[in-house]
Amino acid sequence: MMRAANVPKELAETHHSKVSRWLLLTMLMLCISYILAAPPFRRPLQRQTTLHEQYEELEVRYSRLERSLGSEEHCELGALARLKLDKAKIMLGGGSWWWSNSEIAKALREAEEAMNAWERKEDMLRGAVGLVERAYFSPADGSAQPYWVYVPQNYKPSSKHALIVFLHGYDPSINKANPWLLGDDIYRIADKHNLIILQPHGRKNTDFIHIGEQDVLEALKRTISHYSIDEDRIYLLGVSMGGYGAYIIALHNPHLFAAVAVVAARRYHFLWGELDQTTLPPPRACVLIAENPYMLAENALNFPTLIIHGEKDLLVPVANANLMAKRLSSFGCPATVNILRDESHWIYFDSSLFEKVFEWFEGKRRQALPKRLIYHTFTTAYNRAYWATIDELEEWCTRSTVKASALPNGTIFVNTRNVAALSLELHPELIKPAKKFRLILNGSTIAQGELVKPIKLSHRLRERKGVLAKTHNLCGPVWHAYMHRFIIVQGTLGDEETKAENEAKAKQLADEWVEFSDGVATILKDTEVTEEQIKQYNIIAVGGPNENRLVKLISGELPVRFLEDGYRIGIHEITTRAIKKKLGQVLVYPNPLNQSRYILIYDGVLWGKGLPINHKFDTLPDFTIFTEDQETDGANEIVCAGFFDTHWQVDGKLIWCKLSKCQSKPRYSEISSSAHDGD
Q1: C or N terminus of the chain, fewer CB within 10 Å?
Q2: Separation CA 112–CA 110 (nearest Å)
Q3: Which run of H or of E encompasses 333?
Q4: What is the pTM assigned to this prediction?
Q5: Hey, CA dihedral for 25, 27, 29, 31, is it positive or negative?
């Protein structure tokens, strides 16, 4: 047996310590080598930022840039950044079943690119051809609204280009992230003719009236500023709902367009919707008729109109085309109607139709200074044609007309109907070769002298009574209060139940505006509104004087009196005690705290529960008192409604009331008798 060597104790402990350290170091190195040699999927993964988190980070950055770059300079870049974030938000809220992650990531990437350009103050869209997405901040609600410009491949800034404004049809699924846009086959035709195409969003499905019309005109103004446009070759083309929009925008603003083409369009609310006008309360019918192209047809005197319709259109009957063509021709307006045999409503999905329309537009030029003009309107909201502007009406709910002609001997004849104030912009070209003019208004000479440079003349035909008047910027009805920056003010007076009801109503009004207009709406409590906001904003107040502090403050200066269980206007008193039903009221009026802005009051039952979202805002007059019951078209049962006169005063002839004790004869005869002229 061998015996172990006799090793000193200190040396043995040192040896074991060294061995232990060596073994530990070896094991550590082996572990590191193993980890480094392991397949990638076995390495620890770094956490990636989700699309929602990327969106939130970009929102924070946008807010920072908005605070530091909030001036008007380069504001379209800010609007474009805001638009891209809005699109990403819509996509993120829509779920993966509608938008893919790659589409959401693309919207976020484009938002970041727009913010980079905004921060650098560089025009990232300069020189871009093809389909270009642009945006602006709306003067109505401050939202970022999109518009798309197709720039032909051979576009040259040094040349003037014709512009086609295309208005889309109705589609309940469209929004900022899912717009209705033309296809590549149409863009190839635009390339062939070297045309620029503007495609406004029109706030989704607004019929291109009111806020939709504002969107089109704003997009047009900005397109002209960005591109080299020949303003004498701007054409308007609309299909289906957009065809109605093309009618109404051109007839409101005839001086802007060289020619108009409408495809599969309705010309009249009542014919298209099979809505019997005689069943409507006259004030509501009046609002609809005032936006009826049929009633304004003679405004098309100085531009040609092309009407195309499918013979077998079951959605919009072909009678719409035939009746409008007949109406235009009866006034001597240049109109061409083309009824396509055996074709349905969907003719505008055939690219060959666009080829024919584009060819029809060729060579047509705007009459910027026609020597003869005729302009009809029912409101000062739309009041200009060429060189004539109607500043005030004598009577409301009656058609206003100006007819003017300029002769080469220098005589200018102007005749008006229902006009209280008028402005004329006279240009030497109107009387060429004469050098001197004589202006004869309704048979009397009111001005004369030399006309060697443009001059503006204003004339009042009837004196204004008091301070208030229904002018271009302040004329009602309810829809007009949404055309300028507004805030929804929630009432906070009353018990907890009342406060909760008003909070819910304010949220509903805001949600309805967002759904209807692809916009934004701000809600404030009545305790939060500042004097500066009253100066700048229209106030949409929720709750009467017992519920809303602002309404309580001004209630004594309003034309409608708030009773304990109802309302009084003029001789008309409507109470829940009398009719045994819950009541609601909507009232628009110049805000007594700032008479250059509106106060719009929603009190009691909310209006329009049964109406579709695209028609909750467009048929109310200046005031309406109604019940919670619904009519056949979904509107609330109206008990009393009407308009204020041209000085914002109560006029019994403009009030309609269904109660037997309140029966009166409102002045709506001109509206009723002329609504079907020429049918």
Answers
A1: N
A2: 5
A3: none
A4: 0.90
A5: negative
- State both tokens at 363: 């060579």
- 264 closest CA partner among 348, 174, 351: 348
Q: Please calculate the CA angle 108-95-78 and round it to the nearest 5 degrees.
A: 25
Q: Which amino acid is at 535?
A: K
Block means of pLDDT (10 residues each) for the chain, 679 residues, are: 34 37 47 44 55 96 89 78 96 78 95 95 94 97 97 96 98 94 97 97 96 98 98 98 97 98 84 61 88 94 98 94 96 97 96 97 97 97 98 96 97 98 97 96 97 96 91 97 98 96 97 96 97 97 97 97 95 94 97 98 96 89 96 91 96 90 56 45
- Specify the pairing of strand 411-417 against strand 400-406: antiparallel
What DSSP character marks residue 153?
A: T
The three-state (H, E, C) secondary structure of 279-327, written as one string: HCCHHHHHHHHHCCHHHHHHHHHHCCEEEEEECCCCCCCCHHHHHHHHH
Decide if 541 contacts 550 (C-beta within 8 A): yes
Maximum C-alpha span of the chain: 147
Taking CA atoms, 81 is separated from 109, 136, 220, 381, in Å, by 10, 10, 20, 32
For residue 589, the tally of other CB atoms under 10 A from its CB is 23
Q: How many CB atoms lie within 10 A of CB 124?
A: 15
Residue recorded with tokens 């209006």: 607
- Whether residue 433 has a cis bond before it, omega within 30° of 0: yes
Residue type present at position 33: S
Q: Who contacts 398 (Cβ-Cβ below 8 Å, separation ≥6)?
A: 378, 418, 667, 670, 671
SS3 assignment, position 93: helix
